Amino acid sequence: MNTATWNVRSLFWSGALNVLHNELSKLGSDVVALQETQLGSGIQKFENFTLFYSRSESKKACIWLRILCKRRIFKICQRL
Asked: Which H helix or E strand runs over 50?
């Protein structure tokens, strides 16, 4: 399994998720941890990937978790 990290510096613009999908298809990683996506919480399914994203805030910190998984390991990622 190939893993990677990527600081995308925001996915909060029109067409950003499609650009992300195209670039990650070229990369060839199975699991990618994304930083600075500026997205709320949810699941976004693509042709070959599923993006899990979540945000948690407290008085001390704001925690953002973004994990992109290839379809073949989708069930493993759902358990995370």
From this structure: strand 49-57
